[in-house]
Design a protein that fits this description.
By secondary structure, the chain is mainly α. It is built from three helices and two strands, in the order ββααα.
């Protein structure tokens, strides 16, 4: 748990090190690239790094739900390795 001036935080907050999928959608430099494939490529470049990825469970994320499931499967495989 992170320690603050007034004690430990009740809920740990980790700074994200990767962009969210909704932040990647619509980026001009990623036109034609699947956001999940982009995140997987970034994390594969340095496989032993400790990445923090935030997956938003919001209404706009519903349109990328199927893509996100591939990311979750890949991530859980990497954790086990």
């Amino acid at each position: 748990m992170p320690l603050l001036d007034h004690g430990a935080a009740a809920v740990p907050q980790l700074p994200t090190t990767l962009p969210t999928l909704d932040e990647l959608i619509g980026r001009a430099e990623l036109r034609g690239v699947d956001p999940v494939d982009h995140v997987l490529a970034v994390t594969a470049a340095v496989p032993r790094a400790r990445y923090v990825f935030t997956l938003h469970a919001e209404l706009e994320a519903a349109r990328i739900c199927l893509r996100s499931s591939g990311l979750l499967r890949a991530g859980s495989s990497a954790v086990r390795a």
